[in-house]
Write a structure and sequence with these properties.
The chain is an alpha/beta fold. The chain has 6 helices and 8 strands; from the N terminus they run ββαβαβββαβααβα. The strands form 2 sheets. The chain has a 5-stranded mixed β-sheet with strand order 6-5-4-7-8. A 3-stranded antiparallel β-sheet has the order 2-1-3, with helices on both faces.
């Protein structure tokens, strides 16, 4: 469990989830925050501000938030008239609320077809990771709607099959810090609806 200390933001204090922390620092000018493995270190980070006496012209923020990378992912599984399946994936990336990348496809390994739309969601995350790596991005927030995507990576769920094992290993070895936010599918969220559409287009080869 991590503790997020916010010493400059909408609300100052210690939060026990990235979601709660992000609400205080997202789009907040000069936000200062940091994650710690225990509450004691988080409290020390907060108190260090009150002990320091920076001059007005030379204040240095311990941690600034120059950009927020947010990624939405989805997968699609379309049943054909002949009983076969067409799988697809979709990705949307925003930086500070502005779209910077979108992609879709159906290049899902045959061995993963039995995972249906989840295979598409896994591919979407792997594609997002590769894109972030190509851009030198080391931290992102992923919005997803299937719990296994996070739980396989964290170890909360056991990866019993080769495809999910390879997925968890790839994410954990990516060098990218990922904050996971679960969203409800088909709930009217514009970004989630968009990646759902992209995944369907990918499955159909459009």
């Amino acid at each position: 469990m991590k503790f997020y200390a916010v010493r400059r933001g909408r609300t100052i204090g210690i939060f026990e989830s990235w979601d709660a922390c992000r609400a205080q620092v997202h789009h907040f000018p000069g936000a200062e925050y940091k994650a710690f493995p225990n509450r004691e270190e988080a409290e020390a980070f907060l108190s260090s501000r009150s002990r320091s006496q920076p001059t007005p012209k030379k204040r240095v923020a311990a941690v600034t938030l120059p950009s927020i990378i947010e990624v939405w992912v989805d997968g699609s599984c379309i049943l054909q008239d002949d009983g076969s399946l067409r799988l697809g994936w979709g990705v949307l990336v925003k930086k500070n609320g502005v779209e910077v990348h979108r992609d879709k496809g159906n290049d899902i390994p045959q061995a993963a077809m039995n995972h249906r739309n989840v295979a598409g969601e896994i591919l979407a995350i792997l594609k997002a990771i590769k894109w972030c790596q190509s851009q030198g991005i080391t931290e992102m927030t992923i919005y997803f709607d299937y719990q296994g995507l996070e739980s396989w990576v964290s170890g909360a769920w056991r990866t019993r099959l080769p495809f999910t094992q390879a997925y968890a290993q790839a994410v954990n070895e990516s060098g990218i810090t990922i904050h996971w936010i679960k969203v409800k599918a088909h709930s009217g969220n514009p970004e989630n609806d968009l990646v759902d559409k992209l995944a369907k287009e990918g499955a159909q080869g459009n």
